[in-house]
Amino acid sequence: MDVPKPQPRGSISLERIEHVSDLIGSWGRLQLRLFLLVASLYIAAPLNNFSLYFYVIKMDFWCVGPDNEILSEPNQCDFPEAQTCPNWHYNGTRKTVIREWNLVCDRSRLLYTALSAYQVGYMVSGFLVGYISDKFGRKKGIIVSLIIEMVCSAGLSLAPNIYLFIFIRFVHGIGGYGRYLSSILLMVESVGPKLRGKVLVAFEWIFHLSGYSVIFLTYWVQNYRHIYASASTLSIFSIFMASLAEESPRWQLTQGRTDEARKTLLKYSNPQTEEEKRIFEQKMNKLKQFLDKTHSDSSGNLVDIWRVSRLRNYCFLAYFLWFSTAFSAYALSYSTLDITGSPFTNRAILGLSGIFSTIYLQWRVEKHGRRSLISFCLFSMFLVMLSLAIVGDSARYATQKMGLLLLGEFFITTAFSLLYIYTSEMYPTSLRHVGVGSCSFFARIGTIISPFMGELTRKESIGLTWGTISVISFLGGMSVLFLPETRGREMPDTVEDMLEMTDKKANSPNPS
Fold first, then answer.
1. I want to staple 197 with a disulfide (CB 3.0 to 4.6 A). Which of 357, 365, 401, 498 is the partner?
2. Neighbours of 168 (CB within 10 A)
3. Rounded distance between C-alpha atoms, residue 44 and residue 240, angstroms
């Protein structure tokens, strides 16, 4: 994991103290500590997010009468007793949600609803936890989200019926995304602009490594209830770790909490001598004067952004970009349930694409513009999915299809990872969580729809499903071309800063 090494304190000219990173530097010991604490919160993310994927694996089923007579052929739904089947039998021994509540034939829609419910929670989380995070602090947003996750994981392990299971999955999604986004924002607001991309990409290593542990655990743990019980226990550890983290000094300053920000920044700067303390106070006063002069009002909401036509257009382009990327990523993932081979093996192979994507971003994320790299990935995704659509259901090209799926997973994972970096750099500090959360709202529309692409595959063909993904990816690639570049720029703190940053006359990265 390529985490930046702590840098020695250096003298920063008092002529230019306009941002937190001008005072504390881009990276130091306390930022490394914060990174490790925040990364530890991410360990349980795959367990909460996609472990259910391995408990909705398709199973052969058939109807059995009260006298153990077989009433249907395997996987048959169009027989007279289908609506009133007394007993459904399944092959295998895994206790999945399909077996637990007989989610076959007409009830299969409840299965897709259960998968989508978590993403509906993501939609709500951007605004609900976003309000908490922007109003009361990133740290409080994280802790509230972790408590929600802990309670909901326990509830999922005990849910007596599919309807309560779906509802708890919805609330679980609120906590899951709130924890993730609050953690991301706490991290990006605590490092300098030249390291934001690398730090967040390093953060993704935790998800990939934990993802492989989930594949291993769900393969050996036959009962889905035990998985959620373990996730609830892990959340207790996460709450303790979150309590040790420092609040975002950038958030404190934009909220007018100058004394709290001074204490936090003193920990980051760690002045040893009287001279260093004097210089710190000079920098702190200069930063406060700059903020008082330029950021007279840090309050506001998304409506303040939407009132400006240029910013409104950028917002809605970003919304479609998030929708198209999220839909393509999740639809591709769910489509692997309909290809030959073990779902565990397929997922493990496709997971390699995420690792390669992270390695590539760790190496090149600060070498390319955010906008150009996202568009390249989405256009490449379009070509890959178009090729898969042409091959379709043909069994002759199984190896070639897996190779194309690996490529598609690489491109869409790279684009999705960049979106969080890119969008968090575009919205102002005072509205960053709500701003990124509003983008996530539209992304979740895509992820809610994506599980139902399985119905399209079942009724038509997987080639049509892949063709749909290719079209959506192409449109997403087009939308990002009209957005501003953010690489190498300081993140805006207010709507006025955002307007200045997106000024086309200044829309070129700072070379320094």
1. 365
2. 24
3. 14
Of 87-101, 218-232, 498-512, give the lowest mean pLDDT range: 498-512
DSSP run (H or E) holding 89: strand 87-90
Residue with tokens 């729809």: 449
CB atoms inside a 10 Å sphere around CB 433: 30
CA proximity to 468, closest of 366, 294, 335, 339: 335
Q: Rounded to an integer, what distance in angstroms lies between the CA atom of residue 92 and that of residue 438?
A: 42
**Exposure string (b/e) for 29-51, b if CB count within 10 Å is 16 or more?**
ebbbebbebbbbbbbbbbbbbbb
Phi-psi region of 488 (alpha: psi -120 to 50; beta: other; left: phi over 0): left
What's 68-88 look like in SS3? CCECCCCCCCCCCCHHHCCEE
**266-288 pLDDT tens trace:** 877 777 788 877 888 888 877 77
DSSP string covering 205-225: HHHHHHHHHHHHHHHH--BHH
What DSSP line would sit under 157-193, residue for residue?
HH--SHHHHHHHHHHHHHHHHHHHHHHHHHHHTTS-T
Rounded to the nearest angstrom, the gap between the alpha carbon of residue 349 and the centroid of all alpha carbons in its chain is 21
pTM score, two decimals?
0.74
- Name the residue with tokens 């702190």: 284
Q: What is the DSSP string of 3-52?
A: PPPP-------TT---SHHHHH-S--HHHHHHHHHHHHHTTTHHHHHTGG
Q: What is the dihedral of CA 460, 464, 469, 470, to 10 degrees?
A: 180
Query: How do 61-64 and 87-90 pair as beta strands?
Result: antiparallel
Residues 6+ apart with CB under 8 A from 345: none
pLDDT in tens, 47-75: 887 788 888 887 889 999 888 888 888 88
